[in-house]
Amino acid sequence: MDSTPSTERSTTNTKAAGGTAHHRRVQTHCPYCALQCAITLKNAVDGVELTPRDFPTNRGGLCRKGWTAAELLDSGDRLTHPLRRVGTDEHGEARFERISWPEALDLIVAQFRGVQERHGRDAVGIFGGASLTTERAYQLGKLY
């Protein structure tokens, strides 16, 4: 863990805030591992500022990966809305169209149910990582 006190160090992710000056603070946790180190994200004019918070697991510090957590918010490859595959183009590349969240969730449910009807309930599995809270792991287990 980085021993630099959280009041002395922060990182800024450029462009993620879309250039707005909205200064909303979100207290959350690092997405990488089971420790769930506490962080605060704040929109700033030049991006998203990440600051560690004092928490039993991280005591105000972060590992190398934790310090980069805000960079994911600005990735050009990050999906920000659901897409449905609608075929391929003349080069064999997949084509997608934007759909609403309710449409996407309905499609997922229909596909899961279809696979389970054809191949049995155990034909669909869900992977959960170490960063899941006990409550989220319980909910995953109840999905099917």
From TrEMBL:
One of its GO terms (molecular function) is 4 iron, 4 sulfur cluster binding. Residues 1-15 have a biased composition (Polar residues). Residues 1-22 are annotated as: Disordered. It comes from the Bacteria. GO terms for biological process: respiratory electron transport chain. Keywords: 4Fe-4S, Iron, Iron-sulfur, Metal-binding. InterPro entries: Mopterin_OxRdtase (IPR006656), Mopterin_OxRdtase_4Fe-4S_dom (IPR006963), Prok_molybdopt-oxidoreductase (IPR050123). One of its GO terms (cellular component) is membrane. Residues 23-75 form the 4Fe-4S Mo/W bis-MGD-type domain. It holds the Pfam family Molybdopterin. This is 4Fe-4S Mo/W bis-MGD-type domain-containing protein. It comes from Kocuria soli.
